[in-house]
Amino acid sequence: MYQDNKIWIGSAGNKKVYIYPKMANRHGMIAGATGTGKTVSLKVLAESFSNCGVPVFMADVKGDLSGICMDGVENESIARRIDALGLMEEGFFFRGCPTAFWDIYGEKGLPLRTTISEMGPLLLAKIMGLNDTQSAILSIVFKIADDEELLLIDTKDLRSMLQYVGENAKEYTLRYGNISTASLGAIARALTTLESEGGELFFGEPALNIGDWFCTDTSGRGTIQILDCQRLINNPTMYSTFMLWLMSELFEVLPEAGDLEKPKMVFFFDEAHLLFDNASKELLGKVEQVVKLIRSKGVGIYFITQNPKDIPNGVLSQLGNKIQHALHAYTPSEQKAAKACSQSFRENPEFNTYETLLQLGIGEALVSVLDESGIPTMVERCTILPPQSMMSPLDDAERQKLIQNHLLYVRYSRTEDRDSAYEFLQRKFLADAESAQMAKETAAAEKQRLREEAAAKKAAEKKEAAKDKRVKSAAKNVASSAAGTIGREIGNSVGSSIGGKFGKKLGGNLGASLGRNLLGTLFGR
User: Fold this and answer.
1) Under a CB-based contact definition with an 8 Å cutoff, are residues 296 and 268 in contact?
2) What is the DSSP letter of 198?
3) Suppose 224 and one of 56, 177, 333, 435 were both cysteines; which one would form an S-S bond, judging by CB atoms 3.0 to 4.6 Å apart?
4) Is the separation of the CB atoms in 104 and 201 below 8 Å?
């Protein structure tokens, strides 16, 4: 509850416990076993930040935060807490908060998207579960895309780049290093898996403009952005990597702000252990870096988890505002964890922190915050305030109505597919195929032309040979006829002189035959 420019968390007897807005970007934690009241504490903080004009982001893992947009309803449990804390005299009343719903899958909120390029090769390799070699080759693919000015927006762009690089691996190997076809194939398989898990919806445009989250309503209250993670949580790797990308995006986009009177924005990450489970050393280092440095950008980050040990020490040491609900300690390891948790608080001489931690009831918590000077306060046993908004989840019909009536619905509800690597490489492929087809057709035409020329030449030669043959045959016939005539005349003359009429005939026939045979021999018959 926002009161006197402070965020009232709860009360320890007659003492109110506050978080000072100017210390809210020192980050914080809400921890405790299942059913101890973490969700109520989360709602109380989120509502209070909204009421003081600070935009809020919440990851809704269990689907029980959507009611924050509606006015609360009094029940027996809430009535008892209101009376016990004297809230009616403090101006407590039920009201919802301005809220926008988001969903990577576009089912229970506005579609939340980013691009392949904005995610980058490091986080993308984490989502896809690539080994070091495959991650290095993925970085090379990104580098080639940058050098050749090819936009990587969605998964089909990345798939086209993988195919293109594979087809030209020999050329690129000399410039960028060895590119294994087997590794490219492994990346392509991992990309197929990512698409089946929702990556095809998550990567695309219009990509989220983080500036759209830094908004207030007409009364100056910060808008609460709720990301529905009920389906996303089934892929813990994608969930953790997305949250890391979100923090990194904020860190890169926001300018340095220094110390502000209140944060520019506050993030609540539920099931925080998923951010760190099975995370590589590099990713853990990235999370720690962002948590340490994003404070100067005016952003506060609050982790919600069951046990503080789920959070790495490097991150845990950066959390100045702590709300610790009850922990169960039934085993020696649980007792050790509870003792470590109790020792992280500044001791209060009025009670034993460890024993109190094990005895806390539902809605109670050990609270330690940073005072106005940034010094951790002594731990207090507090009864947490009830939320002003509705405790139960919003029904689907009402949710869809709010989604479709939101000002950002028009901007994000429709997908865009502008010209990028896929389209460029498709055009290049078609142009190369057309060039190859033209070259093939040109070669075939040239071959046909040469074939036709050879056939025409052969036909001409054959025709010329036939002509020569006819000429020779005609010449032979003329010569033969002439020789026969001459021979006949000579034979007639000779035969007539020798043997009269009979001799003339015999001599003519003999002379004609001899003349034709002689000229036939000369002309080669």
Assistant:
1) no
2) I
3) 56
4) yes
Distance between CA atoms of residues 428 and 346, nearest Å? 66
Question: Could you tell me if 494 and 514 are in contact, meaning their C-beta atoms sit under 8 angstroms apart?
Answer: no
100-106-107 Cα angle (round to 5): 90
Residue 299, H or E segment:
strand 299-305
Residues 298/263, Cβ–Cβ less than 8 Å: yes
Kindly give the parts of the chain with pLDDT less than 70: 278-280, 479-480, 482-484, 487-488, 490-525
Measured torsion, CA atoms of residues 465, 469, 475, 476, in degrees rounded to the nearest 10:
150
As to burial, measured by CB atoms within 10 angstroms (0-12 exposed, 13-18 middle, 19+ buried), residue 211 is exposed
Tens digit of pLDDT for each residue in 252-293? 888 888 788 999 999 998 888 877 876 667 777 778 888 888
Q: How far apart are CA 399 and CA 402, in angstroms?
A: 5
- Asked if 183 and 165 count as a contact pair (C-beta separation under 8 A), the reply is no
Q: Which residue has the tokens 């989220």?
A: 208
CA 394, CA 396: separation in Å to the nearest integer? 6
Number of other residues whose CB lies within 10 A of the CB of residue 397: 8
User: Half-sphere exposure (CA, 13 Å, Cβ side) for 480?
Assistant: 14
Please choose, from the candidates 320, 316, 308, 323, the residue with its C-alpha nearest in 3D space to the C-alpha of residue 375: 320
Of 267, 209, 212, 269, give the one whose Cα is nearest residue 239.
269
Write out pLDDT tens, residues 386-402: 999 999 999 989 999 99
